[in-house]
Amino acid sequence: MRVRAHKSDDAGHHGIDLAPMLDFTINLLIFFIIVTAFIKAPGVTVVKPDASTAVQHASATLQIGITADDEIWMAGHQVDLRRLATLVERQHIQRPKSSVVILADKGSSAGMLAKVMDKVRQAGVTDIAIGANPSGKG
User: Fold this and answer.
1) What is the pLDDT, as a whole number, of residue 97?
2) What is the per-residue pLDDT for 13?
3) SS3 content of the chain, % helix, strand, coil (to 5)
4) Does 4 reside within a domain?
5) For residues 73 and 79, is the Cβ–Cβ distance under 8 A?
6) Residue 22 is inside which H or E element, if any?
7) What is the span of the domain harbouring residue 102?
8) Handedness of CA 100, 77, 70, 133 (dihedral sign)
């Protein structure tokens, strides 16, 4: 009796097809790049005050930070108060349904927070929130 050797149709193919995995990885990378472009972090770390009534807000498209020294930060750059309304308006024109979260440090003045809120309203944004840590105390 004679034994025949089995020939496969794909004679030169030894391994796993990585094309689907690479496609999936590239799609994930594109997704994360697009998502991070929509969220504008202030670019500065602030110590937010505690509030017992603080609730989780849907992620804002623009965050403005106020440091303890009353410096204003937006999108990784320090911003002058006089230019804030123009910069926020430009962002609001690009995304009309955008919201703003103001992250004011505990040591910042209430007056600076009021001025920043006023400039944001002048830019046409009505959805404004103030960032705080939920304290869990009632």
Assistant:
1) 80
2) 64
3) 35, 15, 50
4) no
5) yes
6) helix 19-38
7) 40-134
8) positive
At 138 the pLDDT is 43
Bridge partners (DSSP) of residue 74 are: 64, 77
Which pLDDT belongs to residue 17? 81
The whole-angstrom separation of Cα 61 and Cα 74 is: 12
- Classify 78 as helix, strand or coil: strand
- Residues 48-67: b if buried by 16+ CB within 10 A, e if exposed: bbeeeebeeeeebbbbbbbb
39 CB-contact burial (10 Å; exposed 0-12 / middle 13-18 / buried 19+): exposed
Residue 46 lies in a domain: yes
In a domain, 88, yes or no: yes
pLDDT average per 10 residues of sequence, the chain (138 residues) = 59 74 88 68 64 61 88 90 92 84 87 93 88 64
Q: Tell me how many domains the chain contains.
A: 1
- Indicate which CATH number applies to the domain containing 62: 3.30.420.270
Q: Phi, psi at residue 79, to the nearest 5°? A: -120, 140
